[in-house]
Every structure is written in structure tokens, then in C-alpha cells.
Design goal:
By secondary structure, the protein is mainly α. It has two domains: 62 residues; 37 residues. 66% of the residues lie in helices and 0% in strands. The longest helix is centred in the N-terminal third of the chain and has 28 residues. It starts with a helix and ends in an 11-residue tail after the last helix.
Length: 133
Amino acid sequence: MKTGYWLFNGLAFFYAAVTVIYWLVGGEAVGITAIALSGGLAGLIGFYLWFTDKRLGNLLPEDNVSGEISDSAGELGFYSPHSWWPLPLAFCMVLAGLGLLIGWWLTLIAVGGLLISILGFVLEYEKPSKNAH
């Protein structure tokens, strides 16, 4: 992961430099914004990779120079096999997009449904503690 966060943080600094150069040369506002947002996105990903690497604190298989492909074999995580939450989440996203075309009232309703769907999706497997009163 060290290579990943060095790569993305390097891209963030590169995009920041290109943004300043493009602005000084007299570029258009849309181009300046797009390059700056690209730098922000690269910095966000680089920070996430750095923070995750710092929390794990061990050598990952992809960072080991003499590592084998079989070193990274095993379980990758938990993926819900039968969750219904992606369906209302996608429906509310479509309604939010349609609301931009039809009317802001539909977008506001869709954002409310979107918040409920995201909370349901994220907290689907959370169980309340038995000691809660």
C-alpha cells in the first residue's frame, strides 16, 4: 500500500502544480476547476491509503518484494449475499437525478429517501447491545 499512497499523493501534488500553472497561463475557469478537483480526488485516495497503512502497521503482501501471489490468498471481507438495500438506494438515486429535470421538490424527497437507504445499507448488520435500556 506504500506504493499506492506515494503514487496518489504524488499525483495530488502534480495536479496542484498544473492547476497553478494553468491558472497563471490564463486557462478557463472550468479547466482550472477540473484539474483542481482531480488533485483533490487523488489526495483523498492517497490520504485514505496512507491512513489505512498506518492503522494496519504491518507489511502487506503487495509491498513485499519477494512475495508470492499465494501470499494474498484468503478471505477478502464480508459481502452481503441477500441485501435488499441496494434496490431502494438505486431507486432514490434515479429519483434524485430525475428531480433535477422535473422539479426540485422531487429531488428533496429523493434525498430524504436516499439518507434512509444509506443508513439502512450501512447499518444492516448492526445489532443493538443487550445492555441497552
